[in-house]
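[Automated response] Your request has been received and processed.

Submitted sequence:
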Amino acid sequence: MGWMADETGLAKNAANHVALTPLSFLHRAADVFADHVAVIYRDVQRSYAEYHQRVTRLASALAAAGVQPGDVVATLLPNVPAQAEAHFGVPAAGAVLNTINTRLDPDTVGYILDHGGAKVLLCDTALLPLAMQAIDMMDGPAPRIVEVADPQAGLQATGEHIAYEDFLASGNPGFRWIMPQDEWESLSLNYTSGTTGRPKGVVYHHRGAYLLAMGTAVSWAVGIRPVYLAIVPLFHCNGWCHTWMLPVVGGTLVCCREVNARNIYDAIADHGVTHFGGAPIVLNMIINARPEERRPFDHVVQVFTAGAPPAAATLAAIEPLGFNVTQVYGLTETFGHVTECLWRPEWDDLPQEERAAIKARTGVAMPFMEEITVLDAHDRPVPRDGQTLGEIAIRGNAVMKGYYRNPKATEEAFRGGWFRSGDIAFQHPDGYIKITDRAKDIIISGGENVSSVEVEGVLMHHPAVLLCSVVAKPDEKWGEVPCAFVELKEGHDATEAELIAFARARLAGFKTPKRVVFCELPKTATGKVQKFELRARAKEL
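Generated structure:
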């Protein structure tokens, strides 16, 4: 018999086992950090005690509106306090939070509302026209709209729907939160930008969000009472779970409705922002800010960057301005970032150029993940030689439950007991991963995924287009933008402006090609378009 063979009476009980959930963080913070500032938005500042009470009222009002545990509540909101409150208030009602990308077209938003089956939609006043168009395109029952006005941004309530503040006022401040009985219960539903056809609904569990939040506090060494600027859209992997992390450390969330250089510098100078996350486009915004947009500050701001690999030149240019950038990597399917380019002391004294090149690596697994590796076609780890390519494969606690109502895609994504990222990379001898390309030809524009297949599908509807191929074109502002190469039908004419307008009428702005080049497309013997050649051409444009 082994040591500890007799485990009689050592079962889980209420004293020694509580389901992991980020909801616990705000419960504790309302007590421990009651008077500390939890949320800042322009002229509004709220303490943790107030934040907790508003979340409680929201949960209560949702329950009174007929939202049952397991129901979906959607949001169409920029990074305003209501979006942060929904991150706690929706699960506190036992419901599943579906934050919808505010930059999508009405047809896709309508599809998401239908597929997720949202019962209630919290909608920003400025986004009501998008919501109404989307609802017109739905097949199923429309969600009940709660209008979130924003007087701070000059947006007064229309009066056509119940106002968010009135909805909260109707809630009971003594409402008991509905905590998960099992940490595997669904917490949120996030839709990917689909590579082919419709976006897929990624389901997060309470356990993964709890562990990613805790792990981020450790990896980023955020300390106690950091001041975090919400630049990453909270509809994007739930803002990389950072909103759930902040109560752990009594942090202050500074909401940023419009992301521009002036607002970033103002937040750092006025509120003492210590941390933020953002795509490389945000770094470029800071680097290229005009003198009148800049403000002096006397501390180093810690930055997580992800969404697309940052150029070494960008990293070299931003450091002297007072920012320490760490590259992280992940996907919607992994709750946000799961690797970090963990810095080593022996790199401190390297020349600036070499340091920037190291910082441009994708990095190593974060502590809450089990294993992140690069596998070849036979599911074997590639040699750590800094050149052999394979696919990044991921295993650990911050991997989704699966795709909602899509068992086939879920099975495919988890083939062989790994989450298959679709990202192509190699591994350095020290284990650090470096992404070289995206297997699915995804274009990442301003941190948003654009499916080349989707854009091609739209352009192919134009009567003059015979064939088209869409690739990423490097762009100083957005990182990369869609660029279309088009072969016209014989005897047909079309201009670049005409095709861009045609696409714009059918796609979100960030998905619309910024350039159209007319040419014969390079093809393989089997007639497959050679995208690598087009990428090289797009770089020269």
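Summary generated for your ticket: Residues 442-540 form a domain with the GMP Synthetase; Chain A, domain 3 fold (CATH 3.30.300.30). The first strand starts at residue 37 and ends at 41.
If you did not submit this request, please reply to this message.
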